[in-house]
Each structure stands twice: as C-alpha cells, then as structure tokens.
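In the previous chapter we treated chains in isolation. Here, by contrast, the input contains two separate entities that must be folded as one system, with a combined length of 662 residues.
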Amino acid sequence: MTLPPTGLAAHLRTRPRGLPTADDFEIAPVRLASPGPGEVVVRNLFLSLDPAMLMLIAGLPGLPMPIYEIGEPMYGAAVGEVVESHDPALPAGELVLHQLGWREYAVAPAAQFRPVERGPESPSIHLHSGLVAYTGLRLAPLRTGDTVYISSAAGAIGSLAGQIAKLLGAGRVIGSTGSAQKVGRLIDDLGYDAAFEYHDGPVAKLLRASAPDGIDVYFDNVGGSHLRAAIDVLNPHGRIVLCGALEHQLSDSADPRIDPFPLLAKRITVQGFTVGEHQDLAPEYRRLLRDWLTAGAIRPAETIVDGLRNAPQALLDLANGNRVGKTVVRL
Amino acid sequence: MTLPPTGLAAHLRTRPRGLPTADDFEIAPVRLASPGPGEVVVRNLFLSLDPAMLMLIAGLPGLPMPIYEIGEPMYGAAVGEVVESHDPALPAGELVLHQLGWREYAVAPAAQFRPVERGPESPSIHLHSGLVAYTGLRLAPLRTGDTVYISSAAGAIGSLAGQIAKLLGAGRVIGSTGSAQKVGRLIDDLGYDAAFEYHDGPVAKLLRASAPDGIDVYFDNVGGSHLRAAIDVLNPHGRIVLCGALEHQLSDSADPRIDPFPLLAKRITVQGFTVGEHQDLAPEYRRLLRDWLTAGAIRPAETIVDGLRNAPQALLDLANGNRVGKTVVRL
C-alpha cells in the first residue's frame, strides 16, 4: 500500500494540575518517517485508554513507568497491522501489539512489535485487561470457594476479573461500581453474584451486607474508602492485591490512608503488583482465554470511541466512571 | 517433694484505661488444687513477659487470643519443672513449657505441658522469642544479601531477629531503638551492622542515613512512624512482615495510618503473622538454634526480674523500653 505523508499523533502541550482538558493536548498530523532497514510501519487499529494515563499526564511520581513529557510523543498500548516491512521476520499483514499508541502510524524497529493471533474477535481483544485480572487473582492467591470483592468492578479490569474469578473457582464474587445502571450490568452480563453502588452508604456497610460471611480476597482497583472497607470485612488470612488507586488518581482530597493494625491482627497479606513483571503467566492465560472464548464462557465488555481527537474526552469519561468494560479508541 | 499448701498467683482486679498500675493486679497466695488422675503439678521457674500482655490487660480487641478477664487467672508462657505427676508419660523432673504463667504452681492435665530439652543454658531460653523472629524472616522471605530493618531492635524479638537475619544470609541489618545505650548494645552485642535512636529525628531520615541503598525487608514490631518510614525507604519488591504494633499499644495518640500507594507503586508485599500459626517451622528452628548456641554464633539477651510481685512493674518497664532482650520473671 502507498503510505500517506502524514498521520495524526498526540502530545501534551501543557501539564494540567489534576484532570486535563482538551487544551492540554496537541493532536495534529505529523510527517511519517521513512522506515530504515529492520524497521516496519504499523497502521494502528485500536489505542488502549487506561486510568493510569491520567497520572502520566499530571506528572504524578511513584508509578513504575515514565510520565508523559511536554511535547514528547505519548505512548500507550495499541494494536495495529504491519503495512510496510523492512524486516523479513515481521512481514506486512501481521497483527501486532505494541506501546507506540496515541498515533495513527508507528514507524520503529520490528523488535518493538509483538505479533498476536488474528481470531474471530475484534483485534481490540488484545488490549483487554484480562491478564492483569488473572495475574492479581493468581498472586492473591485465589482459592476454590473464596468470596472475592472487586472494586471498580465495571471497569476494564473489574469487568473481566469477576468472570475470571468465577472461572478459577471463586465461590462468590462481589463488585462495587458508581451507578445503578452499572450494578445491573455487573449482575446481568459480567458474572457477579452481588454488586452495590458505592455512593449508597458507607462502603464497609454495603460490602458487609453483600458478604455476611466476610470476604477472603480483595482485588483493589480504587484504594481509599474501598480498601479500608475491605480490610474491615476481610476474614482472618484474607488476601489483598493492589492493582490500582483510582480514588487517589481522581481526587486530591480523598484520604488514601489505612490503619494497618487489622492486617496484623487478622494475619492478612497485601501485595502490590504490576502485570509487566509477571509475563510468565501470559502463555497460560492466553490458552485459558482462547478456551473460555471458544466455549462462550467469558464475555469481554468494551466501549469503543472513534478517532484520536476524541481520545482525551474518552479518557475523562473513563475516569468519571461513565464507561463499562475496556475503553479503546478506534483509529 | 512435699508441696506447699499455697502458691502466689495473679489476676486482674480492675481493668485500666491504657497502661495498668500495681493497683490493677491482685497477686496473692492461692490454695493449690490436688492433682487428679492424668494431672501433674508444675513448679514454674520463669514467666515470660510480652508487650502484647498490655493489650490483654487493657482489653483491647483485635488480637487473636483472649483478653484477661477480671478476677480470672492470667495466662502466659512459662517454663517449669514437673514436681508431682499422675501421668506416667510426663514424670516428675521433666522440664516443660506451657501457657499457665502468672502463678508459682500450675496444676493441670499433662497434655497442657510440652517437655523441652534441658541444655547447658538457663531454662528461660525456652521462653525466648527466636521462633517468632525466625518465622517472620522466613515468611518475608529474607533473601541472601538483603538489607533488613528491624524496629524495637533491642526487644525480645528484635534482639534475636538481627542475629538470626545475619545467620540466614542478610547482607546488612539495621535496628532502631529508644536510647543511645541500647544503640551501643545493638552494635556491640547483638549483631547489628547499624543502629539509630529513633528520637533523634524523623525516622525515615535516620533510616535512610543508615541504608543509603534502601532496605529490602522490614520486620515491624512497632507500626506507626516506623512503618511509614520503612515504606518510604523500601526498595521495589520490598517485603514487610507485621509482627507487633508497640506504638499503637503504648499510645492512644500515635497515628497508626499508612498511605498504601507506595505498596502498589513499588510492588511491596505486607503480611501480618502470628507465630502460633506457623508451628511447622518450630522443629527446624530448634535444630538451628541448638547448632548456633553450640557454635557460639548467637547470644540471646535477657533481663531477669525476681518474683511474681514484681511482674507488673517489669511489664511497664518493658513497655517503656527500659529492657534489653527477653524479659522474664524468675519465680
């Protein structure tokens, strides 16, 4: 195919204090570099949007990945198709996963792209967060019959974590989310046994009502009030995996602190993790996912937004909890 | 031997708010019961004093063991000698470990007593907290070359945890304690590579000065300011074991809370434990301790107080940090 001379790409123009606005982004055509030997050109099909990107935009420290620098290309997980190749090991036509998102075309050495399977599903399936959910549940570790609580349950990770927990043997899975409509989706579509709207009262009270016998595992995507509630309701030898801290990311005023004394008294385990450090689990997860998809045992939920220019607003919608499942930008 | 008609025993007369005073205890002679079939009489030699007893006295909830009830006999680890036996499996003369402390004589079924080895050391060695230290370090888990930080380092657990950490392969062991004199003991007698007096400044600053390359394991006996400092200074993939919460026990006003976000960002593991649930580690620890004692590789530190009537004051002294090593009452 003949490449266009330019493609849209995004960078930060200014760094917001807190949540960004459209004015903080520059989204404009950039000239595509000519690929050199060993390089390929990838036309991106889908860009992944993740709440953690808000921390990279705001420049908050503490994440194990670089923040977005002003004027520099923004990275992000994307899936695309090789349209021109100067490396015989990665021919044109391959579907690839990579980190050069926030642009319509990526030109880079072939080693930066990982070929992925073309299945009957949308290519965006490769951007879904099931491996994160699977990794957290394995690390906890989840045991057969456990009662599991998952916060941000309708989000990209939570919408798969509930289903995967059940498939891995959880006895009962409870989710929390931010609207009555999403509570319905959790129960009807996403495999949750119980769910609550966290604005409806103190989280600990709502959680206890859904889990009268306590919980054994807490998969934390939120922190703050949800983490404190989970510690309150956890049974002895309960296990917490820390995967995200949405409350901290979305509000300067939310109190993130916990009293660790119950961790000692109830002999609870807490572990923070990042999926990138557990890639040894990826092959088994991909096999399981293929089996579950084939059997119709798992239903990945997705929100699709069209066009890179709509990505900033979609990221804010995501942060505000207006989306169910994985949010992707179709490019 | 002919038994005396009575022996001293202690119970709580009133429940203190916060730390107890001598008036809260009744320590008086009680008539010894006649042992029935299957029972033995044990003359206690040493009673163990533990900071957690202050929580049992104050009636604070949350510990995985019963509080002391008003007027009821107080329990506690003790080592004693069988002086009369009505069970052939546990003859007179045996040295035994048991939980019927806070009294000069214990009369109970033989099954409540566990025979222990009579070695060249004082029988009080069986009350030392090395198994607690060993369990925490194994659970962390401690890895060869790790830098380890231990709070309340001159206490019953810390005074052995530092030595055991080194024997298990730690690269560098750092302790904190409450006086310059005890800092000296940590370095000179107790195997610590570095130590600081925690009143000398913000704990995180003092810890960082002792551990310029960060710490890998934190053995927490204190909580609060020490736990927050450790989280601050821990390296990625750092590990925390929660063993005690002295700051919480000794002060109503100390803020126990931590910000869990660094646990996520640095992929840190935290686990609360109690030694009673890890008795599978006891046989290997006892073998190691015997080897270490024989080789002169470990030096258990001990403070001895004479007489049950002095136990309450000794418990307060212990809480106030005026003791080094394991505090025992000689009966």
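The longest strand of chain A covers residues 39-48. The CA atoms of residues 149 and 174 of chain A lie 5 Å apart. Compare these points with the single-chain example from earlier in the chapter.
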